[in-house]
UniProtKB/TrEMBL annotation:
This is CENP-V/GFA domain-containing protein. InterPro entries: CENP-V/GFA, Mss4-like_sf. One of its GO terms (molecular function) is metal ion binding. Pfam families: GFA. Keywords: Lyase, Metal-binding, Zinc. It comes from Sporormia fimetaria CBS 119925. The keyword Zinc applies. Belongs to the Gfa family. It comes from the Eukaryota. SUPFAM superfamilies: Mss4-like. Residues 7-133 form the CENP-V/GFA domain.
Length: 367
């Protein structure tokens, strides 16, 4: 029996593939969760997770990947065709470890990943997804949460009670009737409007009666995972007629119209691109910074999934004043069966439910 495991990372379209060997004695590999505003708006998720790629950076050929300079010290290396972010890099320090996005990794049957710390949690205002990712490691260890950086001399650990429940918007209260939809680089600036819904109407399935909040939930299918580089990805849903460009002009009202607008580089579209991940399905993303933005399907051409991480909500990353979270069932769990993600997703589902119950939120989706 081999004393090592092959670690593989690849993109959704499989144009880019990276492999290396890891001694089993080194497992699980330490991973780090960042909740900063920049990570949310460059992935479309509520956070990013990466772990050090166990091969010397100089031995990894990333020249075919597209690069977005995330900050003065950090870059995201992603597939320009399908959007998958594969590595965080440090262009100014060619010997620094590459950080591989855990969502780009395959799903071998091993205890592969151990979450160590959550950083920049204060950026979320409401705790974001950190509130249900603290106790999801197979060995029972806790991933501690930090206000900013964990390794700083003055690092401030956040207590389990942060944020205070009284500071949260909650399930019943509404806030803004419009949220900005923004990627990290600013190439995409749209607006998502609540919509003129009335309870007497035949409400769309994703609109909650009374509050008219939009339902949000999680998907762990292979395509969403690879599209975003995130293992558990958050989506909400909207009618395209309730989206507008930065200049106020309405976004095309159906999938084919949005595709045509991107193809013709219509004013207002910005840096939006798309990838056809399967027949009748388009995944829209920022071609500059890789942020996931929309999922569209021929099955419901006037409705799109909207990546929650690109929403700019005044009450926090979860946008509770605009969204109603469905915590009952993580979608497409069949895709994680038999590998390291199966246990992770089971534990995330459990912690989500415990957090929901503690907040007294209804169990939307438990039908």
């Amino acid at each position: 029996m081999s004393d090592s495991i092959t670690l593989t990372a690849h993109c959704l379209c499989k144009l880019h593939n990276f492999t290396t060997q890891v001694p089993k004695s080194r497992l699980p590999l330490p991973a780090y969760v960042c909740h900063c505003t920049s990570c949310r708006h460059s992935t479309g998720a509520l956070y990013s997770i990466d772990l050090p790629w166990p091969a010397h950076t100089r031995d990894v050929d990333i020249s075919a990947l597209q690069t977005f300079h995330f900050s003065s010290k950090t870059a995201i290396h992603f597939c320009g065709t399908c959007s998958t972010p594969i590595f965080f890099g440090h262009p100014a320090d060619p010997d620094a470890d590459l950080g591989v996005f855990t969502g780009a990794l395959t799903n071998p049957a091993a205890d592969l990943v151990n979450l160590k710390t959550h950083i920049f949690v204060e950026d979320t205002q409401d705790g974001g997804a950190s509130v249900w990712l603290q106790n999801v490691n197979a060995d029972g260890s806790e991933a501690k949460r930090y206000k900013h950086r964990a390794e700083a001399a003055d690092a401030e650990e956040l207590p389990a009670s942060w944020p205070d429940a009284a500071a949260l918007t909650g399930f019943e209260k509404r806030t803004a009737d419009k949220l900005n939809v923004k990627c990290k680089c600013g190439g995409i600036e749209y607006a998502l409007h609540r919509g003129d819904y009335k309870d007497g109407d035949d409400l769309p399935w994703f609109v909650v009666p009374k509050t008219h909040k939009l339902i949000a939930g999680h998907c762990v299918c292979d395509s969403c995972r690879l599209f975003s580089g995130i293992d558990v990805f958050p989506w909400t849903f909207a009618e395209l007629k309730n989206l507008s460009f930065k200049d106020g002009k309405k976004v095309p009202a159906d999938m084919s119209g949005l595709k045509a607008a991107v193809d013709s580089k219509e004013a207002g579209v910005g840096s939006l691109k798309y990838y056809a991940s399967s027949p009748g399905v388009l995944r829209f993303f920022c071609g500059t910074c890789s942020a996931c933005v929309f999922f569209a399907s021929d099955d419901r051409p006037k409705i799109v999934d909207v990546a929650v991480g690109v929403l700019d909500a005044p009450d926090g990353a979860r946008a509770e004043g605009f969204l109603a979270w469905s915590f009952a069932k993580i979608q497409k769990v069949e895709d994680v069966k038999g590998g390291w993600r199966e246990g992770l997703v089971d534990r995330v589902q459990k912690e989500i439910q415990e957090w929901r119950s503690g907040r007294g939120y209804p169990n939307i989706g438990d039908e």
